[in-house]
Amino acid sequence: MITISGLNKIYNKNKIALNIENQDIDNGIVSIIGQNGAGKTTLLRILSTQLKATSGDAFIDNISVMKEYNKIRKKTVSIPQEAAPIGILTSYEQVYMYLTARGFSFHSAREEANRALKEVGLYNVRNRPTDELSGGMKRKMFVAMALASNADTIFLDEPTTGLDPLSRMEVWSAIKELTGNTILTTHYMEEAEELSKKIYMMDSGNFIGSGTIDELLLPLKGRIRIESREKLDNSYHIGTLYIKYVDSKDLPDYENKYYSIKKITIEDLFIIRGVNLES
């Protein structure tokens, strides 16, 4: 479990990027969702010891991130959004080199690299230069690195950003193979629903909600989302859209008219909290 206590990050000119009083993050695969600038990446960089907090602390399995960072680094793996492979090297070579850099013996690195590549479905292309692999395969290679490391805690920052739908599904299947506690950030609501047993919502550097999918969606149970470019009574204004939530029994009043009717998803939780979504 990750325990956060009074964690703050303030950049130049007093810009507050993170301001979390107390928050626990459960074990298993969990997602942190929020718009750009919500503090997701800043939090993951601090938890993985890549960035120093201004004040406060966090604990991973009771180990201080701020004071015992060498222990944290041995127990964790972090794959940033901007991670890019070395194109002339094969996926096997890159996983193998990563493991030896973490202190694995040559023999163990060979065995674990092959095992992980099999589990994420890359074994048959392990000897091809990564320049020849698809975007989804390249991201799966990084998941293979995390899997092969046998780390207790894994941080994935927006692991499928920029991928087409099929490639995203390939990466999802690889993430499901991870055995360590996995914290991933994402902009894709369906990704959070697909992968996570618990979802944490962030906005303006703080957590604004958490729970299972069913728990989070409970306030909107039995309701339907109506979208229109014309103003609706008691609606939320998001960009050029007006969004209103109505009981499903009232749906006939909106059918066959110039409205877009959608089922409730996690992004609606941000809307009813007054958070303007970019997409």
Radius of gyration based on Cα positions? 21 Å
The largest β sheet comes out as: 6 strands, mixed
Structural class: alpha/beta
SS field, number of helical segments: 9
Spatial separation of the terminal alpha carbons: 32 Å
How would you describe the overall organization of this protein?
The protein has 279 residues and is α/β, with parallel strands linked by helices. The chain is 30% helix and 29% strand. It is built from nine helices and 14 strands. The strands form three sheets. Strands 6-7-8-3-9-10 form a six-stranded mixed sheet, with helices on both faces. A four-stranded antiparallel sheet has the order 2-1-4-5, with helices on one face. A four-stranded antiparallel sheet has the order 12-13-11-14. A hairpin with a 2-residue loop joins strand 4 and strand 5. The two termini are 32 Å apart. 35% of the residues are buried. The mean pLDDT is 88.
Please describe the topology of this protein:
Elements: E1 2-11, E2 15-25, E3 29-33, H1 40-47, E4 55-60, E5 63-64, H2 69-75, E6 76-79, H3 91-101, H4 106-119, H5 135-149, E7 153-157, H6 165-175, E8 181-186, H7 189-195, E9 198-203, E10 206-211, H8 213-217, E11 223-228, E12 236-238, E13 241-247, E14 260-262, H9 267-272
Parallel strand pairs: 3-8, 3-9, 6-7, 7-8
Antiparallel strand pairs: 1-2, 1-4, 4-5, 9-10, 11-13, 11-14, 12-13
Helix pairs in contact: 3-4, 3-5, 4-5, 5-6
